[in-house]
UniProtKB/TrEMBL annotation:
The chain crosses the membrane at residues 568-592, 607-627, 639-663, 683-701, 728-751, 763-783, 795-819. Its main location: membrane. This is Extracellular calcium-sensing receptor-like. Belongs to the G-protein coupled receptor 3 family. The keyword Glycoprotein applies. GO terms for cellular component: plasma membrane. Residues 569-833 form the G-protein coupled receptors family 3 profile domain. It comes from Carassius auratus (Goldfish). Residues 1-16 form the signal peptide. InterPro entries: ANF_lig-bd_rcpt, GPCR_3, GPCR_3_9-Cys_dom, GPCR_3_9-Cys_sf, GPCR_3_C, GPCR_3_Ca_sens_rcpt-rel, GPCR_3_CS, GPCR_3_vmron_rcpt_2. Gene3D superfamilies: 3.40.50.2300, GPCR, family 3, nine cysteines domain. GO terms for molecular function: G protein-coupled receptor activity.
Length: 838
């Protein structure tokens, strides 16, 4: 045990000796592309080259540095704008007045490996030895970069433990908003959280509910597309396919192109970097896939490197969000002068500086500068780099306690963590008017310009502004676009991209099984339901008294149905009722004119006239059933019907009793007629009728009939009818009529074999038989008939029973009076009676 402790103690002593050795760099450091010393130093990473070449790693020898090719002029310009901003600050008397800013700009060659190597180079510096320990201060105070989100993630994670602030001008991935993982990260571009949502808004604005989605298979594309897909789902936008690829995956690119080729969408949302977009556009052009409306992001929508004679057929009319155009005053002159000196190493001046240069000739080949500075007036990403440099300068200005007249305290040592905290508080306005500050996630306010790919009059491709998106404004005014100024893909008309055409008013959407919600069938609304909006999910039920029109897009008042005087059925029934009245009046006039003849006298003329009067009322009461029901007509129709029919049958019953009494009076010793004389006959009729009147009064006082709207038989029609109120009252009225009719029928049946001059009984029997048959069949017909046909059945029953009574009782007498007057004599009546008895 003691031996072990001794060995351990010796080990720690050896370690202590090793720890005191100078801090030396293991291996050769990568040198910056551009650098300048200063009191404070800002580092930067830009993919100035877009292609890297490297030898294979055999792990048998030290790996060589990567070599780069294919200059990326856009990012080289970003490096130039950084230098321009630093030199502008160094000349300023108000910002860091006696402090010079240096820079170290590394080229990452659009490579993750180069990005890592450059990051380590920035943190280590160029010195081979860094003093006695490796715990010294980093040689830089902040890093500007990277351009791509994935590279920025590597940069931020590498520098994070050392609290070195990273300010990106173009890394918009929402993943970088996580302050726990990236506490020292800032950016002068807004997060893709806003751009992803804005893409969904522009798609919805133009009514494209069926789109395709393509994204770069990296942090930028995956996170941005996830935001778009989530927002699109909430906005009711369906995605036919969502595919992704990376620039180094040609097989995936081929599958993406095949998916686009076989898809049915006319609009594609492309959340890709400009390198992937170049590869995709090239393949689409090769396979002649044109006419698709592209909706893009700031990474490629204003990239002029994508413009070729063939790619405009693919990208012409593209819409997308771009960083706002800003003109940085002085940069155009600066960059032209700098590149003139680089491209043409000559001088017009004299003196020492011109001694090392060749004198300029009269003419220089400006074509050598072609395409470099063509986008200088539109410093989209350049303005972000400019603002990033100034943000670092303002944070250093506050940390160094700079004063306008006295300058800054140069002796202060600034730690990177201090710069991070100072960056959180900066709030200033740059010379072109933008206010610079960082929110809680380290990002700036989302402000985009909506641009459209158009060809100018000279055939050149221009990025025309057609709208804007500003997240700082209220929700209803954030997104504005001028549709009239847009050139659409494939022509002047806005493309339509829907899985199913819009369902017009009068229909509803029914989802197709197994397909997205944007794929649906248009189902007509059911009867009584409407939809007054396009693409309604449900049809709405019309109110009770309304019904849908033929187009099912509007509720209209239901048709009101009742038996009116103007319709054919009503006219026919009125005609027959009046016809019955007319016949009854003629019979009454005939009887009145022949009232002194034996046949009239023999048949109890007083009851006959009263019967004719009641029959007239029966025919007339049917008219109360025609027309719009009212409270008074509903009460009148049933009571008038009940009372007049009881009066009628009471008369018939009285005549029947008279016949029976008269026959018995002819028998020897009979004195029966004195018990049923004319006064008693009138009294019996009055008594029978009075009972019905009392029933009707009781009905009307307890629960009278009333007009109602019946909507049970026909859903689209309101039947105006008279509800019975109390059904007991109604059936009591009918029942009483039925009792009298049956009694009358029995008595008349018993009197059917009396002598011929009293043969009125057999006709009464026939009339009662017809009466009972009509009203027995009336009951089921009344119950089963819908609407106005119920009224028609009741009128028909009244007309039929009244006509049966009229013809059966009075037709034979009218026949004798008019056609057989010789039989209308007392001798004939007496002779016939005698022959009967003998």
């Amino acid at each position: 045990m003691l031996l072990f402790l001794y060995i351990l103690l010796c080990f720690f002593q050896l370690q202590a000796k090793v720890g005191n050795t100078p801090c030396r760099m293991m291996g050769e450091s990568k040198h910056p592309l551009l650098f300048k010393d200063g009191d404070v130093t800002i580092g930067a990473l830009f993919p100035v080259h877009s292609i890297e070449t490297s030898s294979s790693f055999k792990f048998t020898q030290k790996p060589q540095f990567l070599s780069c090719s294919s200059v990326n002029l856009r990012d080289f310009r970003l490096a130039q704008i950084m230098i321009f901003a630093i030199e502008e600050i160094n000349k300023s008397e108000s910002l860091l007045p006696n402090i010079s800013i240096g820079y170290r700009i590394y080229d990452t060659c659009s490579s993750r490996l180069s990005s890592m190597s450059a990051t380590v180079g920035l943190m280590n510096g160029l010195e081979i030895e860094a003093g006695d320990t490796c715990k010294g201060q980093p040689p830089i105070h902040a890093i500007i970069g990277e351009t791509e989100s994935s590279a920025t993630v590597i940069l931020s994670r590498t520098t994070g433990p050392f609290k070195i602030p990273v300010i990106s001008h173009a890394a918009s991935c929402e993943c970088l908003s996580n302050r726990k993982e990236y506490p020292s990260f800032f950016r002068t571009i807004s997060s893709d959280y806003h751009q992803g949502r804005a893409l969904a808004y522009i798609v919805k604005h133009f009514g494209w509910s069926w789109v395709g989605a393509v994204n770069s298979d990296n942090d930028y594309g995956n996170n941005g597309m996830a935001i778009f897909l989530n927002t699109a789902q909430k906005e009711g936008i369906c995605v036919e396919y969502s595919v992704k690829f990376y620039r180094t995956e040609p097989e995936k690119l081929k599958k993406v192109v095949d998916t686009i080729k076989t898809g049915t969408v006319k609009v594609i949302v492309a959340f890709v970097s400009f390198l992937e977009m170049g590869l995709l556009t090239e393949q689409l052009s090769i396979q002649n896939i044109t006419g698709l409306q592209m909706v893009g992001v700031e990474a490629w929508i204003t990239s002029k490197t994508l413009i070729t004679p063939t790619t405009f057929r693919v990208l012409g009319g593209s819409l997308g969000f771009a960083i706002r155009k800003v003109n940085i005053e002085g940069f155009a002159d600066y960059v032209i002068k700098a590149f003139w000196d680089t491209a043409f190493p000559c001088s017009h001046g004299q003196g020492n500086d011109s001694q090392i240069k060749v004198n300029c000739s009269s003419y220089q080949d400006l074509l050598l500068l072609k395409n470099y500075n063509e986008d200088v007036p539109e410093h989209r990403f350049s303005s972000n780099v400019y603002k990033a440099v100034y943000a670092v300068a303002h944070s250093l200005h506050s940390l160094l306690k700079c004063k306008t007249q006295e300058g800054c305290e140069k002796g202060l040592k600034i730690q990177p963590q201090q710069v991070v905290e100072a960056l959180k508080k900066v709030n200033f306005t740059v010379k072109f008017g933008d206010c610079v500050f960082f929110d809680s996630t380290g990002a700036t306010v989302a402000r985009y310009e909506v641009v459209n790919w158009q060809k100018d009059f000279d055939g050149s491709v221009q990025f025309k502004p057609v709208g804007y998106y500003d997240a700082s404004l209220p929700i209803d005014t954030r997104f504005v676009v001028n549709t009239e100024n847009i050139l659409w893909a494939g022509g002047k008309l806005k493309p339509s991209s829907v899985c199913s055409e819009s369902c017009p008013p009068g229909t509803r959407k029914a989802a197709q099984k197994g397909r997205p919600v944007c794929c649906y069938d248009c189902i007509p609304c059911a009867e009584g339901e409407i939809s007054y909006e396009t693409d309604s999910n449900n049809c709405k039920q019309c109110p009770v008294e309304y019904w849908s029109n033929d187009e099912k897009n509007k509720c209209v008042l239901k048709a009101v149905e009742f038996l009116s005087f103007t319709e054919v059925m009503g006219i026919v029934l009125v005609f027959f009722s009046l016809f019955g009245v007319g016949i009854t009046v003629l019979v009454a006039l005939l009887f009145y004119s022949k009232k002194d003849t034996p046949i009239v006298k023999a048949n109890n003329s007083e009851l006959s006239f009263l019967l004719l009067f009641s029959l007239t009322l029966c025919f007339l009461c049917s008219l109360t059933f025609i027309g719009r029901p009212t409270e008074w007509s509903c009460m009148l129709r049933h009571t008038a019907f009940g009372i007049t029919f009881v009066l009628c049958i009471s008369c018939v019953l009285g005549k029947t009793i008279v016949v029976l009494m008269a026959f018995k009076a002819t028998l020897p010793g009979s004195n029966v007629m004195k018990w049923f004389g004319p006064a008693k006959q009138r009294l019996s009729v009055f008594a029978f009728t009075l009972i019905q009147v009392l029933i009707c009064v009781l009905w009307l006082t307890t629960s009278p009939p009333f007009p109602s709207k019946n909507m049970k038989y026909y859903k689209e029609i309101i039947i105006l009818e008279c509800s019975l109120g109390s059904t007991i009252g109604f059936w009591a009225v009918l029942g009483y009529i039925g009792i009298l009719a049956v009694l009358c029928f029995i008595l008349s049946f018993l009197a059917r074999k009396l002598p011929d001059n009293f043969n009125e009984a057999k006709f009464i029997t026939f009339s009662m038989l017809i009466f009972c048959a009509v009203w027995i069949t009336f009951i089921p017909a009344y119950v089963s008939s819908p609407g106005k046909f119920t009224v028609a059945v009741e009128i028909f029953a009244i007309f039929s029973s009244s006509t049966g009574l009229l013809f059966c009782i009075f037709a034979p007498k009218c026949y004798i009076i008019l056609l057989k007057p010789e039989k209308n004599t007392k001798q004939h009546m007496v002779g016939k009676t005698t022959s009967k008895f003998y």
